[in-house]
Design a protein that fits this description.
- The complex is a heterodimer of chains A (455) and B (108).
- With 455 residues, chain A is an alpha/beta fold.
- Chain A folds into 2 domains: 260 residues, Rossmann fold (3-Layer(aba) Sandwich); 120 residues, 3-Layer(aba) Sandwich (Oxidized Rhodanese, domain 1), CATH 3.40.250.
- Chain A is 35% helix and 15% strand.
- In chain A, the strands form 3 sheets. Chain A has an 8-stranded mixed β-sheet with strand order 5-4-3-6-7-8-9-10, with helices on both faces. A 5-stranded parallel β-sheet of chain A has the order 11-15-14-12-13. In chain A, strands 1-2 form a two-stranded antiparallel ribbon.
- The longest helix of chain A has 19 residues.
- With 108 residues, chain B is mainly β.
- Chain B has a single domain, classed as Roll (Ubiquitin-like (UB roll)), CATH 3.10.20.30.
- In chain B, strands 2-1-7-5-6 form a 5-stranded mixed β-sheet, with no helix packed on it. Chain B has a two-stranded antiparallel ribbon with strand order 3-4.
- The longest helix of chain B is centred in the middle third of the chain and has 11 residues.
- The N and C termini of chain B lie far apart (40 Å).
- The chains are: A alpha/beta (455), B mainly beta (108).
- At the A-B interface, strand 7, strand 8, helix 11, strand 9 and strand 10 of A face strand 5 and strand 6 of B.
Chain lengths: 455, 108
């Protein structure tokens, strides 16, 4: 086995490889010794190992003595390649335990770079890796853990062009992605390529895990033929996630991959694991078998990779926040305009519409807090509080235009709030105008007050 | 007839409308134990969904029900099994049945 290839392929980040790593261009280039990022079209050599070496025996001795696993399990593992799609909260524990246990080859794919807000759950990156591609960062960490595994970082997003090409090159696929279009794409490509798919997800205090497309088991589309309406999908930035939750679910995901790779029977094909961390409850649910009318797997000869998964799902293939545009430009204030209004002491009300936990993190001191939910429900307590404030504003002596301004984290909810306020106070709009702050508090932190917390 | 049902794992319903998670759809309650009124024919899931919609859903019912069934992305479990194995909408409820609505998660 070409066990040291991983290290030999380490290169210093020079001009040619920077081109593959657009996030490190220009002045962001640091003198990292970077594992080389790989392309979708690269043909990977077969993994071939007929016996364990003495260092292998020493390293893996504690699992070699397990009768269910043993020498044969270890040899099987060493001949298997696994593609980890997403090097985040799930991808880290999956890759970590597979690398430690001696998997043959690990492909690590992620389009994103390391950010500070990742580190509470994406525990293989680190403070010195900010801005580095996650696929590269994770390989740097894994090489320290087990240098005998072959690692291939892919710094790219999976798309209908490269998806099938990459997935065909691996034996088992671990879906550790964070968005709906990628989950459908990965499923369809796995069906087409005939690869088992170990799929996990986590959000807030909850996690789910199951195995798709294993032998005659169901695929993702058997269970979910239609994507959920995009407004019902929450990402980790909006919904939050406790770092330990993907840690637990990702560890179980690694276990499922290891079972399949070593020749054991997986536990979660046809079974869905649900984990509720708040209640400390695990549930195993028996799910339907392969569906005869499944668009993907009922006749895999006819399965096709769609042209556009983002259109199919009505959402973006990343977990970055979307930007709404409900308001016209003159119904919005830029943070600079708002700053000027403040400096000129123009009377106004600033309504912070974020939920309480976010207001507890930070707020502008002169803002009043009315959560969007209170406005949506036209909650009497909040509305009468608001009426009092507006009456005070209108009665202030000076004649300038009176403005009620809404603000939130990024400038989406604040637009919804403006719409609701226009509806509630429709008859009184000649007394004041309602606007929101474009880009919200995060734009304020970026452009006006660098001391304001970002989250 | 007493039917226990949970709104379990529904928290990834829309953030915009239901900040704290979709248990808010049902007024913040994750777990309901309900006694359905007696009727001549046995209750089935189709009727249970209608009953839930009229009696428990506080806002935005379309985030839970579309047409006469649950919206895409919600999985219904009857006594810890996928409802597809149990007859889906036609499953006839029995006393002390446990119905769970889960919503798929996509974060990672």
């Amino acid at each position: 086995m070409s066990g040291m290839d991983g290290i030999d392929s380490q290169i210093t980040c020079t001009g040619s490889s920077v081109d593959k790593l657009p996030h490190l261009k220009g002045n962001e280039v640091k003198s990292y010794s970077l594992p080389e990022s790989h392309g979708a079209d690269e043909i990977l050599p077969e993994l071939n190992k007929s016996s364990l070496t003495n260092p292998d025996i020493l390293r893996y001795s504690r699992q070699l003595v397990l009768p269910e696993f043993g020498v044969q399990g270890q040899l099987n593992l060493s001949k298997v390649s696994v593609l980890v799609i997403g090097c985040g909260g799930l991808g880290c524990p999956v890759a970590q335990y597979l690398a430690a246990s001696g998997i043959g080859r690990l492909g690590l794919l992620d389009y994103d770079v390391v950010e500070m807000s990742n580190l509470h759950r994406q525990v293989l990156h680190g403070e010195n890796r900010l801005g580095m591609p996650k696929s590269v960062s994770i390989v740097k960490t894994l090489q320290k853990l087990n240098s005998s595994v072959i690692y291939l970082p892919y710094h790219m997003s999976l798309n209908p062009e490269n998806g099938l090409q990459i997935i065909r090159q691996y034996d088992i696929i671990a879906d550790c992605s964070d968005n709906v279009p990628t989950r459908y794409l990965v499923n369809d490509a796995c069906v087409l390529a005939g690869k088992p798919l170990v799929s996990a997800s986590a959000l807030r205090w909850e996690g789910q895990l199951t195995v798709y497309n294993y032998q005659q088991g169901p695929c993702y589309r058997c269970l979910f033929p239609k994507p959920p309406p995009s407004e019902t999908v929450t990402n980790c930035a909006d919904g939050g996630v406790l770092g330990i939750v993907p840690g637990i679910i990702g560890s179980l995901q690694a276990l499922e991959v290891l079972k399949i790779a070593s020749g054991m029977v997986p536990s979660y094909s046809g079974v869905l694991l649900m984990f509720d961390a708040l209640e400390g409850r695990f549930r195993n649910i028996k799910i339907r078998g392969k569906q005869n009318d499944c668009a993907a797997c009922s006749n895999s000869a006819e399965t096709a990779i769609l042209q556009d998964y983002e259109a199919f799902c009505g959402s973006s293939a990343s977990d970055k926040c979307r930007m709404l545009s409900l308001l016209s430009r003159d119904e919005r204030l830029s943070v600079e305009e708002y700053k000027r209004l403040l400096d000129d002491h123009i009377p106004h009300i600033l309504i912070d519409v974020r939920p309480q936990p976010e207001v507890d993190i930070c707020q502008l001191p002169h803002s009043i807090h009315i959560p969007l939910k209170g406005l949506e429900q036209k909650n009497e307590k909040w509305i009468s509080f608001l009426r009092t404030k507006i009456a005070e504003l209108i009665n202030t002596g000076n004649r300038v235009e009176k403005t009620v301004i809404t603000i939130c984290k990024l400038g989406n909810d604040s637009q919804i709030a403006v719409k609701i306020l226009q509806e509630i106070f429709g008859n009184e709009v000649d007394l004041f105008v309602v606007k929101d702050v474009q880009g919200g508090l995060m734009a304020w932190a970026e452009k006006i007050d660098p001391m304001f917390p970002r989250y | 007839m007493r039917v226990q049902w949970f709104c379990f794992f529904l928290s990834c319903l829309t953030r915009r409308v239901l900040r704290g998670g979709a248990e808010l759809l049902f007024d913040g309650i994750k777990q309901h134990q309900v006694t359905l009124p007696n009727q001549s024919n046995p209750w089935d899931i189709r009727q249970l969904l209608v009953w839930i919609r009229h009696n428990l859903l506080k806002e935005r019912p379309e985030l839970f029900i579309q047409g006469d069934t649950v919206r895409p992305g919600i999985l219904v479990l009857i006594n810890d099994a996928d409802w597809e194995l149990m007859g889906e909408l036609d499953y006839q409820l029995e006393d002390k049945d446990n119905i769970v609505f889960i919503s798929t998660l996509h974060g990672g």
